[in-house]
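lol so apparently i was supposed to do this last week
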Amino acid sequence: MSKKIRFALLGLGGVGGMVAKELAAHARGEIAVICDLKQELAEKIMEQAGFHADYTVDWQAAIGRKDVDAVIIQTPNHLHEGPFVAALENGKHVSIQKPFALTEKEVSNMAAAAARHPELTTYVAQCYRMERCYKAVKEIIDSGRIGEIRHIKIDYVTGYMHYWIKEMEFGADKRWRLSADSRGMLDGGVHAFDMVRFLTGQEAVKVYAQESAPLMTEYQHSSMVSAAFSLGNGVTAMVSSTFGAVSPWRPSMALEIYGTKGTIRDGKLIYHDQQNGWKKQPDYHDFYAEKEILGWPSEMTGAGHPFAAEINHLIDCIEGKAKSLTPAWSGAHSALGVIKAMESIKNGTPVEIPDLRK
Ligand SMILES: NC(=O)c1ccc[n+]([C@@H]2O[C@H](COP(=O)([O-])OP(=O)(O)OC[C@H]3O[C@@H](n4cnc5c(N)ncnc54)[C@H](O)[C@@H]3O)[C@@H](O)[C@H]2O)c1
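anyway here it is w/ nicotinamide-adenine-dinucleotide bound
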């Protein structure tokens, strides 16, 4: 039997705890060390998932261990750059939660570190790419069924801020979640913008964004941000995001794609029905046919978190059996798009988005 990949897990909160449970049960991976500020949390997760690993509060020590092959970073958003760069410099494969980073400087430092180590796997957990319904949408687009894409619109809108405030009353430390750093566009919006990149296969070159007045009057950053992106070849995209809406999480991001031969909207493929359309007496509805998109959205994993699929993919990449679906440069571009949207709001002007690979 080949050797199991040994992991260091950094951060064992909402996401980290679930990843630890999946990894603990994995046939090709094992957890060497877990790192969190809270030892009691680490112990609780080990007990619940039935595994034992070393515990440390020091992420540098965890990354530096000789018996660790790969690092999974699931610490708060402002704590991504240091562990990511250190992991690569210590020769470890690395998986990191979205958003890749929060500032342009962090993004470029991290992307540069990954570029210096092409021999190591990097995976940025833009997890919606793994969901069956979005894969089905991508297949429809790639098959040419809706023709050439002209416009795509995706919203990531939730009321998570209301939920995090309530969680704090029950003792959880969600202060970082409520800080302006983790505002809707930089954090949730990155899922929607990454989906634009994934589905169109194109990079955005420019963005103009604006924001509403706060939805929660005590939090300025609860505003709704709407960002208009220009992609190559005359394609436009509209991404809106907030965590401050009075609205629950919904099992799919609202997605609309308009192509020259068809539309994808409300989980359906809409196309001109050549055979049955245009009867003798034209009727508006004869124009279109509708087809449900596979698995939309009822088969979405958990709350849009396909952890098992992500871990399998990561291990396949480390073992050389697959190529990372979202390597560092790609996660970097998704983060950069939403960072530039925030810059556009600050400047009141459209902002160019650089291509980090040039
Ligand atoms: N893919 C998704 O859809 C998705 C969903 C939720 C969160 N996330 C991302 O996952 C990451 C974690 O989010 P979460 O909701 O699990 O947060 P969380 O607050 O529940 O957990 C963060 C954990 O990190 C630990 N931590 C903080 N500082 C640390 C340090 N210096 N060293 C070690 N541990 C430290 C905390 O003790 C906590 O247990 C974030 O980047 C977040 O944006 C992604």
